[in-house]
Amino acid sequence: MSDDTTAGGNGAQPPNRPPMVISAQYVRDLSFESPHAPSIFTEMRQPPEISVNVDVQAAALNEEQGAYEVRLKVNAEGKVGDKTAFITELDYGAVVMINAPAEQVSPLLLIEAPRHLFPFARNVLADVTRDGGFPPVVLQPLDFVDLFRRRVQAMQQARQDQQQSAGDPPQGTA
């Protein structure tokens, strides 16, 4: 009797392998700019107003091996009045190994992996803004499930729009 616990019992994958493993984490790109330094420091009476944009991307490195790259891209801009105090852009990546059914791959890559990467990316962002002479930008936890749902809804809407425009007769003037 076999104790093979892999899906389908074919023995192709090692048993007890976790569904997701983060093999490596790294800063792909990091940029910090303070275009109005040093005068901005004499003009600041309170911490800068901060705007933040976060994007999650995933791409296959080697699908046969279940290897993917997941990237958190964080852009933060601080303003003092109408002047830009600082701009920082962080591209934080990871090599993620996936051992899961196909329908679970996207949620693992776009929800779970970013959830694990986020604290590290947040730390890099806080350090670089603090080292740039400003109060550290400490991002609040993000709802990666909501980001994933919005991405899926946007893709579905785009697909529907494309189908409707392909099915419509050409419009012209008569």
TrEMBL record:
Keyword NADP belongs to the record: no
InterPro entries: SecB, SecB-like_sf
Domain of life the protein comes from: Bacteria
Entry GO CC: cytoplasm
Keyword set, alphabetical order: Chaperone, Cytoplasm, Protein transport, Translocation, Transport
Record's keyword annotation contains Transport: yes
Subcellular location: Cytoplasm
Molecular function via GO: unfolded protein binding
Entry's Gene Ontology BP terms: protein folding; protein tetramerization; protein transport
NCBIfam families on file: PRK05751.1-3, secB
Record note on quaternary structure: Homotetramer, a dimer of dimers. One homotetramer interacts with 1 SecA dimer.
Family: Belongs to the SecB family.
Function noted in UniProt: One of the proteins required for the normal export of preproteins out of the cell cytoplasm. It is a molecular chaperone that binds to a subset of precursor proteins, maintaining them in a translocation-competent state. It also specifically binds to its receptor SecA.
Name used for this protein in its record: Protein-export protein SecB
Organism per entry: Roseospira visakhapatnamensis
